[in-house]
Specification:
Blueprint lengths: L1 H24 L2 H55 L7 H81 L5 H13 L5 E5 L2 E2 L8 H8 L7 E2 L6 E3 L1
Parallel strand pairs: 1-4
Antiparallel strand pairs: 1-2, 3-4
């Protein structure tokens, strides 16, 4: 019967469409893109941590620099006052000199601390730059992968449109009840709703039917629907 032959053609289109959809969903570029996104997010977390530590060092560096400037300014002011001629007491002048020396010593100590902080901050600056460069490389790689993925998807979608068009053209030639049964069986049978009976074998499940069942099916009227007793697929003979 022509409608049963059309059913096989419909199955061909549906199977091809299923393969294309599976291929589209499992393109290696998808996994690659997901992996790169995960790596990018991981770099982002590392970058946030390093940036936070770098900024803390930068704040400490600025604090120490302000303290050095303040100590130096105080020492300079005291030095100017000591040599202004307004103070003549040797003891007071000696005390002022001791204060100035103390201020200068403290300033040098803060400068040494500032240098250590500067070195740590510069190392963190380099780490930040390295992580940002790694992120930039990943972005470029993701853009390349995305372009390849979009190209593959477009090609698959074009093939899928052909299969879906062929399917749509067949639907009017298949009785509604047969089509409904086909869809039910296909849903329950991993995408296979109809298959050819070749010899004694169902081409859907590839199992042999009993000889008596095959003989019964062979002698059915051409317009009578037959099904595989193993998988339930509609058999076309």
């Amino acid at each position: 019967m022509a409608s049963f032959d059309d059913l096989l053609t419909l199955q061909h289109h549906d199977s091809a469409a299923d393969r294309l959809r599976h291929r589209r969903a499992t393109l290696p570029e998808r996994a690659e893109l997901e992996s790169k996104r995960a790596a990018y997010d991981d770099l982002g977390r590392q970058l946030a941590d390093v940036t936070e530590r770098r900024d803390a060092e930068l704040r400490e560096e600025r604090r120490l620099d302000d303290e050095v400037r303040s100590l130096e300014a105080k020492a300079k002011a005291e030095d100017s006052r000591m040599y202004s001629g307004t103070i003549s007491s040797p003891r007071e002048l000696q005390a002022m000199q001791a204060d100035i020396d103390q201020l200068k010593r403290q300033a040098r100590e803060r400068e040494d601390e500032e240098l250590e902080v500067l070195m740590r901050r510069e190392a963190l600056d380099a780490e930040v730059a390295e992580l940002e460069a790694a992120q930039a490389r990943l972005v470029a790689e993701m853009e390349t992968t995305m372009a390849a993925l979009e190209k593959q998807v477009a090609e698959i979608d074009a093939e899928l449109a052909v299969e879906e068009g062929g399917r749509a053209a067949l639907l009017p030639s298949i009785p509604e009840a047969t089509l409904r049964l086909y869809e039910q069986v296909r849903t329950a049978n991993r995408g296979v709703g109809a298959a050819r009976l070749v010899g004694m074998n169902c081409q859907a499940c590839h199992l042999a039917l009993p000889a008596t069942e095959v003989d019964r099916i062979r002698h059915l009227p051409p317009d009578t629907l037959a099904r595989c007793e193993h998988c339930g697929a509609i058999l076309v003979r």
